[in-house]
Amino acid sequence: MSRATLPAGALVVSCQAHADSPLHGPQWMALMAMAAEAGGAQGIRANGPADVAAIRAVTRLPIIGIHKIGDPRGVFITPTAAAADGVVRAGADIVAIDATTRPRPDGGPLAAQIRHIHETWDVPVMADVDTLDAGLAARAAGADLVATTLAGYVGGTAPDEPDLRLVAALADRLDCPVVAEGRIRTGTHARLARAAGAHAVVVGTAITNPLELTKRFVRAMDDGR
Ligand SMILES: CC(=O)N[C@H](C=O)[C@@H](O)[C@H](O)[C@H](O)COP(=O)(O)O
After folding, report:
1. Where exactly are the structural domains of the chain?
2. Atom 14 of ligand 1 has which residue's CA nearest to it?
3. Residue of 150, 205, 208 best suited for mutating to test ligand 1, as the one with most atoms within 8 Å of CB
4. What does pTM read for this prediction?
5. Among residues 55, 76, 81, 201, which is most buried (max CB within 10 A)?
6. Cα separation of 16 and 94, whole Å?
7. pLDDT tens digit string along 16-70?
């Protein structure tokens, strides 16, 4: 099967909804992906085989598949080979996996999971990292793309702004596409990420999470009282 790739300059829209959102469910994520495509997105990021399959049924855009499993404070973005298998079977073109240097749930090295995905499915692996060192290690372990997805989420509290310095540092040191992801909230952020060397930019909350966006407005209005 030939799989789609992410064109340079692509806006990828992450279509995910937590269980506490009325939009949780494959049918709603498929509609979200259709809206994103109609708006010009050139890729979709989606969580779990059910959402990936529903989105695959409505678009030919490249899908970055993930499967969040377990405790979000640990390695939980596609933490195992089996989790990766599920999203590729459902139709993902690229698999994104946690590639921080934290211990993995199966105790194995990152390289083993990447090798499994390459050898079993021949699809590219996107390494979701938090630091430059993790990005370099992930590339050395065989990752095909490196994304800043987990910057700010490993220990401590995530800042409001995207980590564009990490985008620039990764783009400077890596010989593979770097993807800017995480807290890209405005068109200016996206443009700056491209200028910093990002091959593509992933936007989630700012486009597909009305629950969180509404909360932000409510908080801002409360603060102004
Ligand atoms: C840290 C983590 O779990 N990130 C997740 C990864 O898939 C998603 O919850 C984010 O929405 C996605 O990365 C896009 O980022 P933002 O929603 O900030 O545009």
Report:
1. 10-223
2. 204
3. 205
4. 0.97
5. 55
6. 16
7. 999 999 999 999 999 999 999 999 999 999 999 999 999 999 999 999 999 999 9
Q: How much distance in Å is there from the Cα of 181 to the middle of ligand 1?
A: 7
CA of 73 to the centre of ligand 1 (A): 14
The CATH number of the domain covering residues in 10-223:
3.20.20.70
Cβ atoms 167, 199 nearer than 8 A = no
CA 73 to CA 130: how far, in whole Å? 13
Q: Which atom of ligand 1 is nearest to the CA of 45?
A: 7
Cβ < 6 A, ligand 1 pocket: 14, 16, 66, 77, 149-150, 153, 181-184, 202-206
Q: How far is CA 106 from CA 78, 118, 119, 192, 217, in A?
A: 12, 18, 19, 37, 41
Count of residues in the chain: 225
Question: Measured over all CA atoms, what is the biggest interatomic distance in the chain, rounded to whole angstroms?
Answer: 58
pLDDT digits (tens, 9 = 90+) for 127-159: 999 999 999 999 999 999 999 999 999 988 899
